[in-house]
Amino acid sequence: MVYIHPDECVYCEACIPECPVEAIFHDDNVPTPWLHDIELNAKRSKEFPPAPPK
Ligand code: SF4
């Protein structure tokens, strides 16, 4: 799983079409069953180091 740091994201949405399982949504478009994941993502994104650059 990948977490996106909400303070680092600039909402460019470039990652949305790249996700192979269509699991990334802009905050405003998160489906209702997954709304609780917004808070989980914010919490977990601060617990892991950033992904290394490609
Ligand atoms: S690619 Fe995705 S995570 Fe990165 S800044 Fe753009 S919207 Fe945010």
Work out the radius of gyration: 11 Å
The counted number of beta strands is 0
Structural class, from secondary structure content?
mainly alpha
What sort of overall outline do the alpha carbons produce when their principal axes are compared? globular
CATH topology: Alpha-Beta Plaits
Please characterize this protein's 3D structure:
This protein has a single domain, classed as Alpha-Beta Plaits. Helix content is 19%, strand content 0%. The protein contains one helix and no strands. It binds iron/sulfur cluster (SF4). Iron/sulfur cluster (SF4) binds next to loops.
Throw out a few tags for this protein.
globular, mainly alpha, 1 helix, Alpha-Beta Plaits, binds iron/sulfur cluster, 54 residues, 19% helix
Write the layout of secondary structure elements.
Blueprint: H1 36-45
The structure holds iron/sulfur cluster.
Task: Briefly say what this structure is.
With 54 residues, this protein is mainly α. The chain has 1 helix and no strands.
